[in-house]
C-alpha cells in the first residue's frame, strides 16, 4: 500500500445512505384535519363601531351571531366586553377566538395593575392587543378597543395581522361600509356622549338594513373615567 495515498473517504463525501451533516435539516408541518373555519360559529358577519368624544368613548355592536353571515346561530350576543377598568373591546371573529382574546387582555391588565399599582395606559393595552392578534390563533378577529386614560379618550382598530390604528371613529365587520357612510356624514370632534350614542346607533341600524350578518338589536358601551357601562336594546331605533 502506497503510504502517500489517502485511502480514507473525503469528509465532503458522506457514506451512501447517510445524510450530509453540512446540509440543513428541513422538517415538515403536520397536516391539519380539524374543522374548517366556515364550520365555526362566527361573528365575522357583524358590525361594531367605536367613537371618541372629549367626555369618553362609545362602542356599539349588533346582537347577531352567525355562521359566516349565512345562518343565524344566536340573536342575543353581547359583542362588547369590559377588559380594563376604563376600557372595553368589541368581538369580531370566531366566538371562541374572541372570548379567549378578551380573557387574555383582562389578565394582562389585571397583572399590570397588581404589579405596578397603577392602571395600564391605553397605548400599552393596544400594543398588547396587537401582539396577541399577531401571535395567537384568533380566527379572523378585527376588534375595536376603546378606552380612557390620563392622556384622553382613545379608539383603536386591531387588525387580524396585529396592526393597531388609533382613530377618532372606526367601524369593523361585514357591515362596515354601510356604517361608515353614516358616520362620515354625522361625526365631528365636537359631539358629546349622548350625540355619539345616537350616531353609533344610526350606524348599526344602517348596517342591519342591508347586511345579513348584522341585526337583532344593539349593545352600547359607555366608557368614561368612572368606568364602563354596557346596555342592550332590542329596538335600536329608539336610540335615534
Instruction: Output the structural class.
Output: alpha+beta
CATH superfamily: Aminohydrolase, N-terminal nucleophile (Ntn) domain
What's the number of domains?
1
Q: What's the tally of helices?
A: 4
Strand order of the largest sheet: 10-1-2-11-12
What about the largest sheet?
5 strands, antiparallel
- SSE order: EEEEEEHHEEEEHHEE
What distance lies between the first and last C-alpha atoms, to the nearest angstrom?
102 Å
The coarse overall form would be: globular
The average pLDDT value, as a whole number, equals: 86
Instruction: Say how many strands there are.
Output: 12
Radius of gyration: 25 Å
Unreliable parts: 34-43
- CATH T-level topology: Glutamine Phosphoribosylpyrophosphate, subunit 1, domain 1
Give the CATH architecture.
4-Layer Sandwich
In which range does the helix fraction lie? 25-40%
CATH class: Alpha Beta
Structure description:
The protein is an alpha+beta fold. The protein has a single domain (42-239), classed as Glutamine Phosphoribosylpyrophosphate, subunit 1, domain 1, CATH 3.60.20. It contains four helices and twelve strands. The chain has helices at residues 95-116, 122-135, 176-186, 193-210, and strands spanning 48-52, 57-62, 65-67, 71-74, 80-84, 87-90, 144-149, 152-158, 164-167, 169-172, 218-224, 227-233. The longest helix is centred in the middle third of the chain and has 22 residues, at 95-116. The radius of gyration is 25 Å and the shape is globular.
